[in-house]
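Box S2. Input/output pair 1.
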Amino acid sequence: MMSRSQTASASAPSGIGPGVRPWIAARVGADESAIGFRVLSVGRSNLTFAVTLDGVDRWVLRRPPLGHAGGSAHDVSREGRIMAALGPTPVPVPTILEIVDDPDVLEVPFVFQDHCDGFPIHEPADLELIPASGSVADSMLSLVDALAKIHSVDVDAVGLGDLRRPGGFVERQLRRWLGQYEAVTTRDIPVIAEVQAALARDIPPETATGLVHGDVKPNNMLFDRRTGEVQAVVDWELSSIGDVVTDLGYLLAMMFVPLEYTGIWTPTPAEGGLTAEQVVSRYAELTGQDTSRVPYYAAFAAWKLACIREGVYTRLKQGRMGDLDLDPEETGAGVEPLAAHALEILRSGQL
C-alpha cells in the first residue's frame, strides 16, 4: 500500500510551500539552492519528505495530507511531541529537531527531524537489504522487540500521561473509526457497521494500558543496514494510550490477513518470516501480557484498516494525496472484502 520514493527535483513537490526552503536553509545554515526534496514512501496520510543537502538525504519533513481540515488523526505536532518524548527511552525513534506551527513558513504545522538511514520492508526486494549476518526472522523478531519496548514505556514519566482519554479504549476506537468512516465515505458498505456491532458486543477486558503505536508493521520500521535490527519506529500519527494488545493484533493482521485484502505485503514464513505463533510467543515472553484474545484484536485491526482504506480511497478520488502514485479504484475495491474478512476472523476465532 506504499509507493516507492520519488526522485528529487529542483521544484518542490506538492505540499512544500514557498516558505519552507528558505526556512530550512536558515535553520541549517545552508544556501537555498543546495536544499532539495523528494517524497518518501512513508505512509498514505501524513506526507513525508526527505530533505536533501547537495543531493544527500539529511533531514525529514512530515506534514498533514493536502486538504487536511484538522483532527487528531493527522496531527503532526502531536506525533512529533510523542517521538520527542520517546527520545530518551529504549524505544528507537528519529531525533525530532523542531515542531513548526508558523503559517509564514507553511500553511499547516510540520515536524522537522533528522534523517534515519534505515530501510523499511514493504516489498520482497527489501529483504535483500538485510545484511548477511542477520536473517528475515531476526529482523521480524527485532520488530516484536520494538513493540514490547513501546508497551513498556511509563507514559507519565515521559510526559505523555495527558494523552489518556476517559472510557474503554476499544469501545472508544470503535466509535471513532466508524464515525470517521461515515464522515468521509461516499458509498454504502453495510458490512462496516455489521463488524463494528459484532466487535462492540464482545470487547475483551482491558488488562494492560500503555502507549499504543496504532500502525505497527514492517514498513513503519526503519531497519539498520548493518545489523538488520529496527533502527527507528516511524508513523506515530495513530498513536494513543490504551489497550496495548491492540497493537499485537494489528501486527498479526498485517502479517497474516491475505495480501489481496490488506494490500500490504509482509514476509511470510516461506520467505523467512515468522509464524503467528512465533510472534505471539516472543511478545508474551517479553511483556508477560495475556494474548488469549489475539484473534479478536486482529479482527478489530482488519476492520479499522478497512475504515482507513475507505478514507484513503475518498482522498485519492478527490486528488488530496499529494504526489503518491496510488490507484484509487484498487484501493477502494479492497475495503469491503477486508471488512468481511474481519467478520470471518471474529466468527472463527482464527487468523
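Box S3. Input/output pair 2.
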Amino acid sequence: MSAPLRLRRLPFGARLSLTCLMLVTLGGYAASGLYMQDHHQNRDGTPGLTKTDIEGVYHGVTVEAPLGRLIEVEHPKEKGLDPMNEFDRAQLTEWLKATDQIVENWQNIDFGDGSGSPEEIVTMSCGKCHGPGVSKDDWVAPLLGSWDDYKPMAFQNEVSPTDEAILLASTHAHSLALGTITLLICALMYATRMPGIIKGLLTVLASAGLLFDLGAWWLARDNPAFIDLIIAGGAAHAGAMGLMMLLVILDAWLPGGRGGAHEASG
C-alpha cells in the first residue's frame, strides 16, 4: 500500500506554490474581516463593528438616540467631569421619549415644568465642551452649536435587516466558495505531521463554525438570540482556518526529512 500524502515530501516547487496560495488565502480572510468592519460598522451610531451592528444586518434593530445613550451613562462622568444634574437629565429623557414631538419641543420653554427648553438645557451642558464659543484648548469634537448639529443625536435609528434576496445571493456565494476552501484546507491539514487530535479539533471547528455562521444568518431574522451563534461560528471558522493555513506552511518547510519508511502506514 502506498504511503499517504505528506506535505514535507512534496518537491520544492510544489511546496513554494502551496505556500504562496496559503498566503493569498490568508490575505483574503483578512481582507474579508476588514471589509465586514468597514461595511457594517456605525449602524448603531458608534465607531467600530459591534454586536448591535451585526444584529442590524441580520435581524434589524432599533438603535437608541446617541444623546439618550450619553444621558444614560451620565456623560461626561467617564472623563472625570461633572455630569448633567439629575433634574435636567430627567427632562431631556422625557423630551427624547416623545419621538414625534422632538423638533416641536426643541425650543419649547414650557416643556416639562417650564424651567427651560431642551435647547437651553442641552446647550448649557454640552456647550461647555462642544460649543462654538469654547476656547481652542478646551474645545472637544464634535461641534455642537445649532439644531442641525444636535438633530442626528436626538433621533433613534431604525436599522432594517439585509433584504432577503441579497441575503440569499450572499448565502449562495459564501456556501460554495467557503465550503470548497474549507474542504481543501482541511484535506491539506490531514497531510501534515500534526497530531491527530489537533487535526480533528481544527477541522471540526472550521467546518462546524461555517455551518453555524451561515445557518444562523437565516435563524437570526426571526430570533436575535442567534446573533451570538453568527459571531461564535464566524470566529471559530476564521480562527481555525487561519491556524490551519499557518500550520500547513510550517509543516511544508520544517526540517524532518522528505518522508521515510516509517511513514508508510501513517
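Caption for Box S3: Residues 258-266 have pLDDT under 50 and may be disordered. The chain has two domains: 7-59+160-255, 65-155.
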